[in-house]
Amino acid sequence: MGIELDLELPDVEILSVSRDNNGDYVIELRSTKKSGVCRKCGKKIRHFRGYDQWIMIRHLPILGREVYLKIRPRRYQCLDCDNEPTTTERFPWRAPGKSYTKTYQDHVLQFLINSNIKDVCLKERLGEKHIESKKSWAVDDYKQLKGLLWAFRDSAVFNLPFIQYAIHKIWWSEF
């Protein structure tokens, strides 16, 4: 008997679901995209050039167990650029350059509201350095940050974890 999952991740399909030695879930995915964007010229490229290495990306827990997405990003080659460079597929649901999804990042940040880093580390089985890196985003637009702080200055919810969560939402343009 299987369980059907909707991970709400675009452009991927589930190949298999298994459990690792710790009892955590490993969901093997395959990209369904048929093109990429050249990292040099920005054009749409369709010339498939193989796969990159397998990557493991942490996602939201299921039934109290950690969940890891296992996927091999596709590589595409641009035939229009000099030296015909290859570009590795990027996933819009993955935090750029990180080993976790944006949804998991939000999940951890929400735990920080009215909590502390040590509690969140215990709940999510993370080291403190992971939490620190998740909450240390830079905001390029100083006016947005200043406006946000001004809006919350008289608020009863004026606390550092909430502001960090709000900064994250601005960073991802979801606020």
From TrEMBL:
Keywords: Metal-binding, Zinc, Zinc-finger. Residues 36-81 form the Transposase IS204/IS1001/IS1096/IS1165 zinc-finger domain. One of its GO terms (molecular function) is zinc ion binding. It comes from the Bacteria. Pfam families: Zn_ribbon_ISL3. This is Zinc-finger of transposase IS204/IS1001/IS1096/IS1165. It comes from Desulfocicer vacuolatum DSM 3385.
